[in-house]
Amino acid sequence: MASENDTGASTVKYYTRAEVEKYNTAQSAWIIIHDKVYDVTNFVKQHPGGEEVVLEHAGKDGTEPFEDIGHSSDARAMMEPYKIGELVEEERTKNNKKKQDSANGTSNGDSSSSCCIVM
Ligand code: HEM
């Protein structure tokens, strides 16, 4: 079928890292993996690697440790139902194109706003 409604992003919710950071407890645990946001509150108890490791990264970006462990494709499929949204475009790790784009604009002579160094 040619016509798909994939242009309407109405079903996708976008979150900032600051928003995700609020959900950093066992009562409400969100985690960012590959720029996607997962509510793993009900998953942590079932996590084969134990709940602690996941909770340690609750509210944060767990992409690195997630990949470090080398999760199986099974694991990747398992997390799908917990996906609640994605990071806003400007905060995605792979989306550096936009950053470069705005970085070459020197017209912003706002002396009051200091520059942030993102590591
Ligand atoms: C929603 C996110 C996650 C899902 C669905 C998930 C799922 C799984 C699954 C299915 C396994 C069994 C092995 C495999 O199939 O790969 C596993 C193991 C494991 N996971 Fe996760 N995981 C998640 C997040 C994390 C995070 C953020 C960490 C961070 C450190 C982590 C650490 C581990 C560890 C240490 C093991 C045990 C590996 C072993 O015993 O060899 N997982 N996970």
TrEMBL record:
<feature type="region of interest" description="Disordered">
    <location>
        <begin position="86"/>
        <end position="119"/>
    </location>
</feature>
<protein>
    <recommendedName>
        <fullName>Cytochrome b5</fullName>
    </recommendedName>
</protein>
<keyword id="KW-0349">Heme</keyword>
<comment type="similarity">
    <text>Belongs to the cytochrome b5 family.</text>
</comment>
<keyword id="KW-0408">Iron</keyword>
<keyword id="KW-0249">Electron transport</keyword>
<keyword id="KW-0479">Metal-binding</keyword>
<dbReference type="InterPro" id="IPR036400">
    <property type="entry name" value="Cyt_B5-like_heme/steroid_sf"/>
</dbReference>
<keyword id="KW-0492">Microsome</keyword>
<feature type="domain" description="Cytochrome b5 heme-binding">
    <location>
        <begin position="12"/>
        <end position="88"/>
    </location>
</feature>
<dbReference type="InterPro" id="IPR050668">
    <property type="entry name" value="Cytochrome_b5"/>
</dbReference>
<keyword id="KW-0813">Transport</keyword>
<keyword id="KW-0256">Endoplasmic reticulum</keyword>
<feature type="compositionally biased region" description="Polar residues">
    <location>
        <begin position="102"/>
        <end position="119"/>
    </location>
</feature>
<dbReference type="Pfam" id="PF00173">
    <property type="entry name" value="Cyt-b5"/>
</dbReference>
<keyword id="KW-0812">Transmembrane</keyword>
<feature type="compositionally biased region" description="Basic and acidic residues">
    <location>
        <begin position="90"/>
        <end position="101"/>
    </location>
</feature>
<dbReference type="InterPro" id="IPR001199">
    <property type="entry name" value="Cyt_B5-like_heme/steroid-bd"/>
</dbReference>
<keyword id="KW-0472">Membrane</keyword>
